[in-house]
Amino acid sequence: xxxxxxxxxxxxxxxxxxxxxxxxxxxxxxxxxxxxxxxxxxxxxxxxxxxxxxxxxxxxxxxxxxxxxxxxxxxxxxxxxxxxxxxxxxxxxxxxxxxxxxxxxxxxxxxxxxxxxxxxxxxxxxxxxxxxxxxxxxxxxxxxxxxxxxxxxxxxxxxxxxxxxxxxxxxxxxxxxxxxxxxxxxxxxxxxxxxxxxxxxxxxxxxxxxxxxxxxxxxxxxxxxxxxxxxxxxxxxxxxxxxxxxxxxxxxxxxxxxxxxxxxxxxxxxxxxxxxxxxxxxxxxxxxxxxxxxxxxxxxxxxxxxxxxxxxxxxxxxxxxxxxxxxxxxxxxxxxxxxxxxxxxxxxxxxxxxxxxxxxxxxxxxxxxxxxxxxxxxxxxxxxxxxxxxxxxxxxxxxxxxxxxxxxxxxxxxxxxxxxxxxxxxxxxxxxxxxxxxxx
Length: 440
Known about the structure:
The chain contains 21 helices and eight strands. It has 440 residues and is of the alpha/beta class. It is globular.
């Protein structure tokens, strides 16, 4: 059973488990069970769809190079097979079935193709194993996030440039949200698996991000590779150790050092999407003006696309510009083809502006569309508490307890200022009596 829980706003877009960023997060609040209902039992700012951002052209332009395509066995997966694949992957991740999920993601195949694109080959039995690149198993990473309280959801099959993709939503334990699209193929062994993945938070294919990760390694182990690199790739390889240092510092919570190192990078690298997200994670860890300034920097570099809306949601919320924030959410919702979690987020913005009728409607709509969004239930209760609608509070408390098997302690409710008026009403006594009868 779950206790009444407290959630806080945490806004960083979910960096989808790239080895560079690793889903690092700073705990601004707690998601561990506590015994009081939340003040704003609500969401965090999601990181929805991010088509490739429009970045001002740097002096040295980063190339768009992905891993070579798989020599697929025909026919290509059909939309129906995409649908089946998405459901199977969701079930495997949520069940903690790492073997099945790993087989579906086939991250190892993607690593090999990225290395091939750089002309690098590593014998796994080689004595120089220390120099061999490693890539966290995406399946293990996602299962870990779900185990810690996140959710992994296959939303639907979408069509991009005439080709189907499986749209996935990942809600991290801190409630920040990421989306990615899976491009599938039928591998030579006849199995359908992930060929590449478009990560909305970075606005590019996973293979692009991985390929850059291996550049520094390639230059160290294969000196001749430099002749095959573009000017931008050479620049990245030159500063690769700094990028690794930033990532390590972020993962160890050394945010000031990480941001300081990030600031020292050439402008061309600071405009790289993955590196820029590392800087944003570090700034969020520091908080305050540093975070707001970095958000502004990132959103401006990504202006004109969905990525700009993504980063602008939290920026406008922190600046108190709610209409601008709502506009970003509307565009993001349209870009992903509709997501109840964004409806829930929209309700939270209404709530923060004391627009309770609008908040109530959005929370109820989110619950109707996706009944498992627990935060929407708590937010709906909070609206009833604010409006001092005691019958409504009773109704939604009962619904929430029934739906999520929440543990309720009477003394904890009495200690929570949000319930002061409700406790003085007859409905509070009705709720306690109802709850005790339910325990029998």
